[in-house]
Task: inverse folding
């Protein structure tokens, strides 16, 4: 893969007024950054495609868990305080989706760490690439994979009788929230990749992600939990994302739920990606 | 590990020393590298805390079998830890194959069986770490022993047996594919068998295909054996099916591992 030169082409286009030259240069730089991000995204997607064995467990395992829970929790949905559902399958859809995309969410960090370990990152740095695409390209790959997983998981649930009360638009929100969560987790993975340069260190975040999902309202409503676990689950950002998404599925469309479902992961994404950019800038300026 | 003369190679005592050296090497390795202990211990602890916390209200459903969720979930988390321990033991062999150490082991005189037995013993011993961790954390959460102290023996026997069975199954796969990546097959197999059992709810809570699968799943019998002392008294009728299931799993997985080891060494 080659990156296009970042030298603004406008600089060689003859006399122009200074502000318009700067603006044209910025536009060209932005376009090049976009092209480079797309090239690196494509590389990331191709890499995932070639390692489908790593992607499939992230689809099969959440589906297996959903199938098992649906058949073993038939009496549980009758507990007072449990949301009104026809089947546990309706309740568990957001959990399965979040679990599925989380399986590959740290991949953008792991791949970045691999690039650092095997020297490819240094070659990218030496090439005339702008800095941001180095991070965004990897996240772009994770976004494409997460979107595909999201669509597949929802399709399978619909096939087995799940009804989304909020309609197709709610399904789109569901996928969008999952994708934003992947960016948030991926950003965190990239921070660790840049700070440690180790795939092992990035992989070590997986139990953290796994625990965050289990210690949330993903598989059981928080009002049926008790003690310290309930407090942890209620303070867990995963709960703040899953609860509104679940209401979109079980109760119907609500703008406030859409807002909460998207804003929470968006804010976390902005924070973690900004941290990754800062870490990258520090790494590049110190070396 | 010292290599004895060829005369000693047919001696049972020599085979025992080789097996214990391999087992000891694994334990020394795990003790010397705390980063290896953490996942072994951490995941089962996460399981016991997550399952008891999230599914605590299951005890309110009639017929659950206990009013203390730790008495149901602790064994399940310990068994998950045992599966990890078994897979971890086989992973050590995968690492040895990848870095060439296993080839040197095969060059040692005598039977190959001690290599297999030593690794299996290492996994069984390693399983005591998560089992003890889970029992201690559960005790803090209010775990009770209506079946008395003998209950703890059943848990350790069950977890050691599960670790041995999954180690042997892992070894069969590792001897066949010779890569660390192949361990994912055993992890998926282990996770699936655990989830398709009575890990989280009694069998009469299940319906449809899951009920059928859980009934024939050998892990269900092992769980029943290990859990009986947490739900009431220990009885022979709950004990023997669990022991038979453990024996059968170890025998089948062992036969597969021996077959693959012979192919590898040939």
Result:
């Amino acid at each position: 893969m080659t990156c296009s030169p970042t030298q603004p082409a406008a600089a060689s286009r003859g006399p122009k007024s200074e502000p318009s030259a700067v603006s044209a240069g910025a536009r060209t730089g932005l376009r090049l950054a976009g092209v480079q991000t797309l090239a690196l995204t494509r590389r990331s997607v191709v890499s995932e495609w070639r390692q489908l064995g790593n992607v499939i467990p992230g689809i099969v395992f959440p589906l297996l868990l959903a199938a098992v829970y649906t058949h073993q929790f038939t009496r549980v949905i009758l507990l007072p305080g449990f949301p009104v559902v026809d089947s546990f399958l309706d309740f568990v859809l957001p959990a399965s989706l979040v679990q599925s995309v989380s399986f590959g969410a740290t991949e953008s960090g792991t791949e970045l760490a691999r690039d650092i370990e095997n020297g490819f990152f240094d070659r990218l740095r030496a090439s005339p690439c702008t800095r941001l695409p180095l991070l965004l390209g990897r996240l772009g790959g994770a976004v494409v994979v997460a979107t595909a997983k999201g669509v597949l998981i929802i399709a399978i649930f619909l096939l087995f009788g799940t009804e989304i009360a909020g309609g197709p638009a709610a399904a789109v929100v569901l996928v969008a929230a999952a994708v934003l969560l992947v960016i948030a987790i991926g950003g965190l993975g990239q921070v660790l990749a840049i700070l440690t340069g180790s795939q092992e260190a990035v992989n070590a975040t997986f139990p953290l992600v796994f625990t965050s999902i289990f210690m949330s309202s993903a598989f059981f409503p928080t009002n049926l939990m008790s003690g310290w676990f309930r407090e942890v689950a209620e303070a867990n950002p995963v709960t703040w994302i899953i609860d509104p998404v679940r209401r979109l599925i079980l109760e119907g469309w609500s703008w406030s739920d859409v807002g909460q479902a998207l804003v929470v992961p968006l804010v976390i994404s902005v924070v973690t990606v900004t941290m990754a950019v800062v870490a990258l800038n520090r790494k590049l300026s110190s070396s | 590990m010292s290599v004895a003369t060829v005369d000693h190679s047919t001696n049972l005592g020599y085979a025992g020393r080789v097996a214990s050296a391999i087992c000891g090497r694994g334990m020394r390795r795990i003790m010397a590298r705390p980063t290896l202990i953490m996942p072994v211990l951490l995941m089962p602890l996460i399981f016991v805390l997550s399952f008891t916390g999230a599914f605590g209200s299951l005890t309110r459903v009639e017929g659950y079998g206990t009013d203390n969720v730790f008495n149901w979930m602790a064994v399940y988390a310990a068994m998950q830890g045992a599966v990890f321990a078994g897979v971890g033991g086989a992973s050590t062999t995968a690492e040895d194959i990848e870095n060439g150490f296993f080839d040197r082991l095969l060059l040692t005189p005598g039977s190959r069986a001690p290599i297999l037995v030593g690794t299996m013993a290492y996994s069984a011993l390693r399983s005591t770490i998560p089992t003890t961790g889970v029992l201690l954390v559960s005790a803090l959460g209010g775990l009770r022993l209506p079946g008395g102290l003998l209950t703890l023996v059943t848990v350790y026997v069950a977890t050691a047996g599960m670790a041995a069975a999954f180690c042997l199954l892992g070894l069969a796969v590792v001897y066949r594919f010779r890569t660390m990546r192949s361990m994912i097959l055993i992890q998926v197999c282990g996770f699936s068998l655990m989830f398709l059992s009575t890990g989280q709810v009694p069998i009469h809570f299940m319906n449809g295909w899951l009920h059928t699968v859980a009934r024939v799943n050998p892990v269900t019998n092992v769980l029943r054996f290990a859990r009986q002392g947490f739900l009431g008294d220990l009885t022979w009728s709950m004990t023997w099916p669990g022991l038979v299931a453990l024996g059968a799993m170890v025998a089948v997985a062992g036969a597969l591992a021996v077959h693959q080891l012979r192919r590898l060494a040939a």
In short: Chain A has one domain: 52-286. Chain A touches chain B at residues 53, 57, 60-61, 64-65, 67-68, 71-76, 79, 207, 210-211, 214-215, 219-220, 224-230, 232-233 (CB under 8 Å). Residues 1-16 of chain A have pLDDT under 50 and may be disordered. Residues 52-286 of chain A form one domain.
